[in-house]
Amino acid sequence: MPLKLFGSMPRSAVILLSGGLDSATTAAIALSEGYALYALSFDYGQRHRSELEAAERVAKSLDVARHVTLKIDLRAFGSSALTDAIEVPKDRTVGEMDQGIPITYVPARNTVFLSFALGYAEVLGAADIFIGVNAVDYSGYPDCRPEFIEAFERVANLATKAGVERTLMFKIHTPLVHWTKAQIIRRGTELGVDYGLTHSCYDPDSMGAACGHCDSCVLRLKGFAEAGLTDPAPYRP
Ligand SMILES: [Zn+2]
User: Fold this and answer.
1) What is the mean pLDDT of residues 183-197?
2) Distance from the alpha carbon of residue 91 to the mean position of ligand 1, in angstroms
3) How far is the CA of 207 from the centre of ligand 1 (A)?
4) What distance in angstroms lies between residue 14's CA and the mean position of ligand 1's atoms?
């Protein structure tokens, strides 16, 4: 029997895993730092199931300690092209994406998701939460910015028993926040992320093939091109 040394247990962390390129890379980074990962995905009423299937595939491929998919229904509120019958914008340039917050914004989504992650982390006794937000090649979502993450970290330490009693000091890790999409893809490739398992498209077909034209596809394809790589994910012909 191998001796179990004190302190040899890996530290646990909760990661928000959407099945997209950014969260898969963030998970690989957290694993490379030695964390045991508890992955959290949300069946939030998104119009397309492909991203949940991708989250399953990514969780399996990365050998996480546990993967939980929570069901919450944000369709009850609607108002986003991802949860309501609203057309997804296509073929916008990066300049056009910079003009404002797009209709694919899901109201308060990262606040909702991080709140669940915080509850899960407190139960696990895990001080570390990873989220793959990015404020460089992104779509202008307010809940992807570093100032939001810093504010949420303060909330985490004010809102919990573990934070108030100082048994845990919560930290929200955002390793990708200042990286370009190309940098993210290069780092993930070095760490062995299989991007063919990931899914980013806002408007895939019934088989899960990406459209190649929504903001998310445009940013993803630009990232692969700038990294000098080919995206292995399936696209519609
Ligand atoms: Zn797309």
Assistant:
1) 97
2) 9
3) 13
4) 28
Strands (E), 59-127: 66-71
Task: Give tens-digit pLDDT for 58-84.
Answer: 999 998 999 999 999 988 888 788 888
Q: Would you state the pLDDT for residue 5?
A: 47
Q: How far is the CA of 151 from the centre of ligand 1 (A)?
A: 31
The span from the CA of 108 to the CA of 74, in Å, is 10
d(CA 156, CA 160): 6
For the segment 151-169, the average pLDDT, to the nearest whole number, is: 97
Q: What is the average per-residue pLDDT within 156-169? A: 96
Q: What DSSP designation does 16 have?
A: E
Residue type, 121: A
Distance 88 CA to ligand 1 centre (A): 9
* Residue bearing tokens 């990232």: 223
134 by Cβ neighbours in 10 Å (0-12 / 13-18 / 19+) ranks as: buried
Q: Where are the alpha helices (DSSP H) in the chain?
A: 21-32, 50-62, 94-97, 109-124, 146-159, 161-164, 181-190, 215-227
155 alpha carbon – ligand 1 mean position (Å): 34
Q: Residue range 32-40: average pLDDT?
A: 97
Task: Answer whether 0.85 is exceeded by the pTM.
Answer: yes
Task: Average the pLDDT over 112-120 and give the result.
Answer: 98
Which residues are placed with Cβ below 5 angstroms of ligand 1, an ion?
A: 201, 210-211, 214, 217
Integer-rounded Cα radius of gyration of the chain: 18
Distance 21 CA to ligand 1 centre (A): 13
> How far, in Å, from the CA of 54 to the mean position of ligand 1?
15
